[in-house]
Amino acid sequence: MMMEHSGHRILFTGDLNRKLGQYVSERGSNIKADILKVPHHGTEGLAPNAFFAAVNAKFALVPSPAGLWCSERSARPRSWFRDNQVPVLVNGFSGNVTVIIDEGNMEILEQKEPTRPLCSGS
């Protein structure tokens, strides 16, 4: 589901898996978004890297506990976002994340100030 408001786009992916993520990245119309809600809690089985590249998000939101995001199951998306310099906000570190879009401006607020880097080696 894509939401567009005041010139900003947010892509909500649910549990988009590898097969459907590949299909959307190859055949979907404009899926570029300012914010990507990372599918599948950021763990393997999620959309391929081609999907992340097609979305070209400025920020990634991951609904995941800290331990899961730092686990081997999340290594691929964690590395992709790091290598492509996309800031990632993980609920397990940031708490609740609020996105405010008002008159063309976008602000992302974290419930708590996370420790950076989020996981050792990232």
Question: What would your notes on this structure say?
Answer:
The chain has 122 residues and is of the alpha/beta class. The chain has a single domain (2-110), classed as Rossmann fold, CATH 3.40.50. The chain has helices at residues 18-27, 49-55, 66-69, 75-83, 91-94, and strands spanning 2-5, 8-12, 35-37, 59-62, 88-90, 97-102, 105-110. It has a five-stranded mixed beta sheet. A two-stranded antiparallel sheet has the order 6-7. Helix 1 (18-27) crosses helix 2 (49-55). The radius of gyration is 14 Å and the shape is globular. The protein starts with a strand and ends in a 12-residue tail after the last strand.
Largest sheet: 5 strands, mixed
What global shape is seen?
globular
Q: Please give the number of β-strands.
A: 7
Radius of gyration: 14 Å
Specify the number of helices: 5
Second CATH tier, the architecture: 3-Layer(aba) Sandwich
Per-chain topology:
Blueprint: E1 2-5, E2 8-12, H1 18-27, E3 35-37, H2 49-55, E4 59-62, H3 66-69, H4 75-83, E5 88-90, H5 91-94, E6 97-102, E7 105-110
Parallel strand pairs: 2-3, 3-4, 4-5
Antiparallel strand pairs: 1-2, 6-7
Task: Provide a compact summary of the structure.
Helix content is 28%, strand content 25%. It has helices at residues 18-27, 49-55, 66-69, 75-83, 91-94; strands spanning 2-5, 8-12, 35-37, 59-62, 88-90, 97-102, 105-110. A five-stranded mixed beta sheet has the order 1-2-3-4-5. Strands 6-7 form a two-stranded antiparallel ribbon.
